[in-house]
Design goal:
68 residues; alpha+beta; 3 strands; 3-stranded antiparallel β-sheet
Length: 68
Amino acid sequence: MKLYRFLTGPDDASFCHKVSAALNKGWELQGSPTLSFNSQTGQMIAGQAVVKTVHGKDYDPEMKLSEQ
């Protein structure tokens, strides 16, 4: 099965660690990162799509993608 996640978070080191953790669990970058400005908080928000192929399992909408 092929899985998709869209990681988001403040544009700081914590977001980089979130993406790095996903990469080290076998997820791969998909496309370019995105940035958006939250005018209510004055903060930049980063986003990055990641994908992963998992063999021998079937997709279930109840599964926690971050644990795959």
